[in-house]
């Protein structure tokens, strides 16, 4: 793919993508966009579980498919098979290949800033931090997860934090430079399926895969919660914010506590993190469509 522009070396960043790529249709879009972004030096894609037997392996296979369709050589690595509570972590040898890659990249002498984009449960990051808390100062974590405290009648089970509550709270209290995109914000990444059909029609094999994968999921019984002909590409804000940190409004506040039911509460004594209040969905979506089209043109 040829861009008629370059990104200066001092503006490039190292990126690790941590993804539950097979749980539904969002993650493959975010993975593809990240791999096609010149600003990103993508070091690894880490497969996350989604608290089902075999889910990490399914995420590994789906992420690998996206990598292959984009002719990329970025490694896809197996992560934890269970939430943090189910892991035995006595030494580095107990870390999954994914957690080990996060640890190694954080400890690297490379001076390019490291961003870890977390698109699901945050177990792989939590495991690395649990054994090596010193790495929190050496990376920025962008997490699509949690929900803000609000009206109990509007409360939902937030999928990503709910799939590893212990891991979520470990990262939230770790003191990491954490940029949080909660449910109330990531659900606003709205796009119609008709627009996806139009915009992906000229995007070749990767566009066909992304569209067909989404339509298949949308037609399944697992998508009972969708409205029918629209989607929220809720994982894509992690890519947009790593590209442009002010691609949305944010504030700073104490990290929320995630409760067992995935609802949250604010506790003043907890570490301060960045919490996004909005994202620029059109900037992110149009960038995605443009990069897929340029890739297909070769």
Automatic annotation (TrEMBL):
<dbReference type="InterPro" id="IPR001910">
    <property type="entry name" value="Inosine/uridine_hydrolase_dom"/>
</dbReference>
<dbReference type="Pfam" id="PF01156">
    <property type="entry name" value="IU_nuc_hydro"/>
</dbReference>
<dbReference type="GO" id="GO:0008477">
    <property type="term" value="F:purine nucleosidase activity"/>
</dbReference>
<keyword id="KW-0378">Hydrolase</keyword>
<dbReference type="InterPro" id="IPR036452">
    <property type="entry name" value="Ribo_hydro-like"/>
</dbReference>
<keyword id="KW-0326">Glycosidase</keyword>
<feature type="domain" description="Inosine/uridine-preferring nucleoside hydrolase">
    <location>
        <begin position="15"/>
        <end position="245"/>
    </location>
</feature>
<dbReference type="GO" id="GO:0005829">
    <property type="term" value="C:cytosol"/>
</dbReference>
<protein>
    <submittedName>
        <fullName>Nucleoside hydrolase</fullName>
    </submittedName>
</protein>
<dbReference type="InterPro" id="IPR023186">
    <property type="entry name" value="IUNH"/>
</dbReference>
<dbReference type="GO" id="GO:0006152">
    <property type="term" value="P:purine nucleoside catabolic process"/>
</dbReference>
């Amino acid at each position: 793919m040829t861009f008629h522009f370059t990104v200066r070396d001092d503006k490039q960043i190292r990126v690790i993508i941590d993804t539950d790529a097979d749980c539904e249709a969002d993650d493959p879009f975010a993975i593809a966009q990240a791999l096609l972004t010149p600003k990103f030096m993508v070091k690894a894609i880490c497969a996350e579980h989604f608290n089902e037997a075999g889910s990490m392996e399914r995420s590994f296979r789906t992420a690998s498919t996206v990598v292959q369709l984009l002719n990329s050589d970025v490694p896809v690595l197996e992560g934890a098979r269970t939430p943090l509570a189910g892991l035995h972590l006595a030494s580095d040898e107990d870390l999954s290949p994914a957690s080990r890659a996060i640890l190694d990249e954080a400890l690297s002498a490379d001076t390019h800033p490291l961003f870890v984009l977390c698109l699901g449960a945050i177990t792989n990051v939590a495991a690395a931090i649990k054994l090596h808390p010193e790495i929190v100062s050496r990376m920025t974590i962008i997490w699509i997860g949690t929900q803000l405290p609000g009206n109990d009648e509007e409360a939902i089970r937030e999928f990503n934090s709910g799939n590893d509550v212990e891991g979520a709270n470990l990262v939230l209290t770790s003191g990491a430079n954490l940029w949080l995109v909660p449910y109330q914000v990531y659900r606003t990444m709205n796009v119609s399926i008709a627009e996806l059909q139009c915009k992906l029609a000229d995007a070749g094999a990767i566009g066909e895969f992304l569209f067909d994968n989404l339509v298949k999921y949308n037609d399944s019984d697992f998508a009972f919660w969708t409205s029918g002909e629209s989607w929220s590409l809720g994982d894509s804000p992690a890519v947009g914010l790593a590209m442009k940190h002010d691609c949305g409004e944010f504030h700073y506040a104490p990290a929320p506590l995630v409760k067992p039911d995935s609802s949250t509460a604010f506790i003043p004594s907890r570490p301060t993190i960045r919490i996004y209040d909005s994202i620029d969905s059109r900037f992110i979506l149009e960038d995605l469509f443009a990069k897929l089209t340029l890739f297909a043109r070769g």
